[in-house]
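Appendix B. Chain record.
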Amino acid sequence: MPRFRPFLTLAVVLAGGVALLAPAAPALGRFGSLPRASERPVTLLLAGVTPNYPPSAVWPYPAAPEDYSGLTDTIVLAQVQPDGQVRLLSIPRDTWVNVPGWGYGKINSANRRGGPDTLVQAVQQLTGLRVDAHALLSLNALRDLTDAAGGVNLTVPEDMRYDDTAGRLHINLKAGPQHLNGQQAEGFLRFRHDALGDIGRVSRQQMFLGALAARLRSPLNAWRLPAVVGALDRNASTDLTRGTFGAVLGALLHGPKVSAATLPGRFGPGGTWSPDAAGIRALVQEQFADPGDPRALSVALVNVDAPQGTARRVKARLEAAGYRDVRIVSEDRHALPRTTLSGNAGAAGALRRDLGYGVPDGSAGAPGVALTVRLGADAR
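Structure tokens predicted for this chain:
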């Protein structure tokens, strides 16, 4: 029997490992990827979706099956840097924007109106940052994620008391340092009766995400990670690819270091949040801009040999894709069979991919801009 003891020990260890990894198995099956180094940041759009309820039912009643088509109560851009830094940009749900294809309204309506693609476009237009992948999270995600992590430690800024029997929401938290389980964390984030309204909720979202990152960063909680991955997978709809997942894993191996900011703006009519365009540009350039991403740079369009109106149409296309500073510049017209791109080689290559045509050109660009596109006869 003694000679078989090492094999029995190994079998027990393997069985325990399989049990620990089991909650993450569905996610690993879809996104399983070795960590890889990335040369550029990965920007993820995270949005918490409110439940939909049957219109003919009477309170209290359960929500309809989750299809991730509701309003987005929480909107956060998470930019994962190659060195492991995670920069968060919270976007208040009441931010007043031009929703692509729908007109002006609160940004939290974008997902309900046009789905996640419309939400991504609205966020890209607002911030000028390219979104690499999105994840829509159900209401249950917060509770499951917190419990999978073993709770979070944070300081509750004020006493919070609220009861909504019909909505099955009961909040009773005391001010001061607390260890919150999933149900308590949900109440902490959903509480709305403070002086700052939606901006107060954004501040609490940032507190929670920082506390969660600190919890998961501890080596003592490494064994909880499969359960956390499983909780996310059960409660999310995402277009994350294996390549993007691998880049995120590679960055987070350095240990997540989280910093957070809120979209610059001010309170507007009806409790809306009016974005400060100049403040957003400054914040993005200082904390979030990727020098290889042309959306963060100024772009000049010059109609050299394309049909009239082409520059205007290309400008609209680029702005819909998240470019924030696109200008139309005049130069003398002449024969130009192919569109040319001048400026930073890496950014010009990414711009070419967005356009779908064009060739690099070493000539001088238009003054005062980072990239110049001279539209030739092939422009469309």
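Further analysis of this model is presented in Appendix C.
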